[in-house]
Amino acid sequence: MESDEGHDRLLFAIAKAWKGLQGELLVQGDGDAPPAAAPALTLRSFSHGCSLISPLFGCLGIAFKFAEKDYVAKVHDLCEAAKEYDTLSVMVDQDIKNQTVRNGGSHTRNLLRVLRGVDMVRVLFEHILVTEGNSLKEPASKAYEQVFAPHHSWTIRKVVSAGMLMLPTKIQFLKKLNEEEDSAKGHIEEFVKSAGPVVQYVNNIYLNKELGTDW
């Protein structure tokens, strides 16, 4: 198999990073349930975990090209913000204080968009684990419809729908990541298990501060 050094052991790195993020929450949580509002998650570790996911969008081909460019730019913004703010909650509080939460380019707006990207990958991986065969069309379509479609215009949804016809196969996708199905399964399962509570935690930051997430 041809090696791609940029993606070598990427799934392992993603699984490890997100297990660590879940661990940050469990330090103050009760069992497997993260605290709803405790500002425990550091922005530096969260933005790093999100940056590791960036290459996955490119590996999915043209269907998710729109997501790759947008996601990468917004993750970069969060990485820069991590130099100034220790936790996600503190960063959001500053935008609330400045009355810039919903402004284009605000850290809080960018965080919400990044979170959707993470959740899309989580749902995609969930469906990959339970879908038989070599096609990614069903897992990718379900993930897009669940996470992105409610926030996209009809035009974007049509473009994505057309792009779904050009998705790589599961084997091709994993090959780009220097993985085979057997070696990838454990890493994918670990990410899905860890990312769920983290996504819930970040969503709760918005809900507990009465910002909502449907914007």
Provide structural commentary:
By secondary structure, the chain is an all-alpha fold. The chain has nine helices and no strands. It has one domain (5-27, 36-205): Glycolipid transfer protein (Glycolipid transfer protein, GLTP), CATH 1.10.3520.10.
Task: Give a brief description.
This protein is mainly alpha-helical.
Name the helix and strand elements from N-terminus to C-terminus, one letter apiece. Answer: HHHHHHHHH
Count of individual domains = 1
The CATH C-level name is: Mainly Alpha
CATH topology label? Glycolipid transfer protein, GLTP
Q: Major sheet, described briefly?
A: none
Helical element count?
9
- The backbone outline, from C-alpha atoms, is globular
Q: DSSP strand (E) fraction?
A: under 5%
Overall structural class, as computed from helix and strand content, comes to: mainly alpha
| Proper CATH architecture | Orthogonal Bundle
Looking at this structure, what is the CATH superfamily?
Answer: Glycolipid transfer protein
How confident overall, as mean pLDDT?
90
Estimate the helix proportion, in percent: 55-70%
Number of strands: 0
Low-confidence stretches: 1-5
The Cα radius of gyration reads 17 Å
Give the N-terminus to C-terminus distance in angstroms.
Answer: 43 Å
Protein name: Glycolipid transfer protein domain-containing protein
Keywords: Transport
Organism: Physcomitrium patens
GO molecular function: ceramide 1-phosphate binding; ceramide 1-phosphate transfer activity
